[in-house]
Design goal:
The chain is mainly α. The chain has helices spanning 2-39, 43-66, 71-88, 91-101. Helix 1 (2-39) packs across helix 2 and helix 2 (43-66) packs antiparallel against helix 3 (71-88). The N and C termini lie far apart (71 Å).
């Protein structure tokens, strides 16, 4: 009986973690899909940016769940995300990305009229 309860508890925890990871990845994918036309991302850059964003969102979620949602820790995570993005983006792309992240410009593609 204890074995069944233990197995059930393990499966419940495993499935909830997998579900959270899937939601984080989906949110990251959605954000990168919005950024792709604005930054003119290559498929490889988009893939790497999804990975960076997924890690960032998962880490922020862990902070929130632990109850230690500290502004300094979130700022450190954001800084780490920006440094990682800077490694894969061109200078122009990174400037636009950083501006969007800091909400300095709107997420509207520029039209070439």
């Amino acid at each position: 009986m204890k074995t069944r309860i233990s197995i059930f508890a393990f499966l419940l925890i495993f499935l909830s973690c997998a579900s959270a990871r899937t939601q984080t990845t989906a949110a990251a994918q959605k954000k990168v899909d919005e950024l792709r036309p604005l930054l003119h991302l290559s498929p490889e850059q988009a893939k790497q940016l999804v990975a960076i964003e997924s890690v960032y969102l998962a880490d922020v979620e862990k902070l929130q769940q632990s109850g230690k949602n500290n502004e300094e820790q979130v700022a450190a995570l954001r800084s780490r995300k920006l440094k990682s993005a800077q490694k894969i983006l061109s200078r122009a792309q990174y400037i636009k990305f950083q501006s969007i992240e800091h909400q300095l410009i709107k997420k509207v593609p520029v039209r070439a009229d």
